[in-house]
Each structure stands twice: as C-alpha cells, then as structure tokens.
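To: structure subgroup
Subject: Chain for Friday's discussion

All,

I'm putting the inputs and outputs inline so they're searchable in the archive.
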Amino acid sequence: MTGFLAGTGVAAAAPAPAVAEYVALGDSWSADSTPMPTMISTRDVPWGCLQSAGNYPKQVAAALGARQFRDATCGSATSEALSGPQSVVQGVNPPQFDRLTATTDLVTLGIGGNDVGLAGAVSGCLNLLPQLPLPLPPLLGNPCAARWTAGGVDEMSVRITAAEPKIAAAIDGIRLRSPHATVLLVDYLQGVPRHGCWPLVPMLDGDVRWLRAKLEEFNAMLARVAVAKSVRFVDTYTTSAGHDFCQLPGSTWVEGLLPLSLTPVGLAAPFHPNQLGADHQALRVLDEVRR
C-alpha cells in the first residue's frame, strides 16, 4: 500500500467500490473506546459511549468516501443494544439498528464480547501475587481459570455457545432493515499473549493461556456465524500477532492494565485497542471491502 489519507492511519490502496451509506454497529472494540475527552466523538452517540474520533469505522468511511455515514458503536454494548436502547453516562444511545435504512449498502458489526463477559473475565484474572501453593482468595495468587472451570464445566465456553444464536440473529436483523447491504462481521484483535508478563500485567501464566484460548474460541464462533449467514468475516486476530498487551509501547495494539498510552499520548482504556489497533482494524476492513 502507498500513501496515507490525511488525518488517519489508513493507507490508500486500490480503488474501493462506491459506498453511498455506511453504518457501523458494535461495542467498545469497534468504538475503539477512549477516556480522553478530546478524542471522544459525540456526532452520532452520547458522550458516555466513549466513541473515539479515530476509530476504525470513521477511518473506513473516510477512505471509502461514503456519502452518508452513521457510527452507532458504543462502549459496553451487548447484542441487546442493537435492537434496544442502551443507557450510558450523560444519555441514552438509541437502538443501534435505528441507524440502518433500506438504502444502507455497507454495515460493519463487532459485537458479542460483552454478551459472554470477556472484559469481566480479564479484570477478574488480575492477581497481586504470583501463584503460590496456598489456599489464597482471588487477586492474591488464586488462578481465575480454576474458578471459571469449577466442576469440570468451562463457564466461558458455555457463554460463547449461548451467544452464537444472538450473533446470528443480529445479522438477520441487519438484513431485515438493510436487505441490499454488504455485511462485514469483525472479530477481536489478538490482545492476549501466549504467556504472561507479570507484574507488568499481573496475571498468572495459566490464566493468560486460558484467556487466550477463550478469545480464540470466541473468534472462531464469530467466523462460524459468518459462514452460516453468508456474510464476510474480517479477521483482525491472526493479522495482529505480536501486538498483544504485553508488548512495549509502539508495538502493542491493545493496551495493558495501566490507563496510559503513547499512541496517542494520554489516557487509555485498559485492555482495549489503542490507535495503532484501530488503524489495523481499519486496514483489515478495507482489505475485505476491496476484495
């Protein structure tokens, strides 16, 4: 790719198909949520969605020259927020599906992580101590994976299975409202490493491996739905290897525990894509649109 669009991290490439009306749907990993007040966009959603002014939908819309663009993505959104209102700080985000019309010709969808509780699982796996051979409470060396798999049943796997029909129903909802749209289902970046980096990110190695396996299982579910529903799947996971939350600033595309970032410099949402991650998401979506 050669040349960069002004004000974005998206490189100009082969001519893209004309897009008249693009609608972005999704949660914080599509909103590329930011706590930096100067970076929060309120054009399409309330302030409390923490939607980034540099998120991948906005970069994609600019690169495609979409004549109409509505970004409904919102932090903490579940699949229920697609068809129902979502209460946030300082307002309510209307049902995301409300932005769809019969003339919408491109839709990106990134949803499901909050349905299965991935964010809560990550924060619940933080540990103040390395693993010790003692009966310690959570946050003090007790593996979180053991709690999730008590009784021989992996609760996260159960949740991922239960979320599958919800994602399928979301695609049905898009097609009902926008029958002529190209639909792209976007997965989640490879934010979890193969091994931990305690104490930089205080998680036990075994828990990091479990979280990585659950993220891969979740993304595989999304890919399965995309095939079943005959929509395009945007793989940002395999293409973001080596940019997890244990990497050094400038190499990480998903921030770790510290709420600070160097890309750009300022506050960051822990365990969420930074601007480099958003740039990669945009490039992968554009690659799929142009395919």
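Points worth raising on Friday:
The beta strands are 21-26, 68-71, 86-88, 91-93, 106-110, 182-186, 232-234, 260-262, 265-267.
The chain is about 35% helix and 10% strand.

D.
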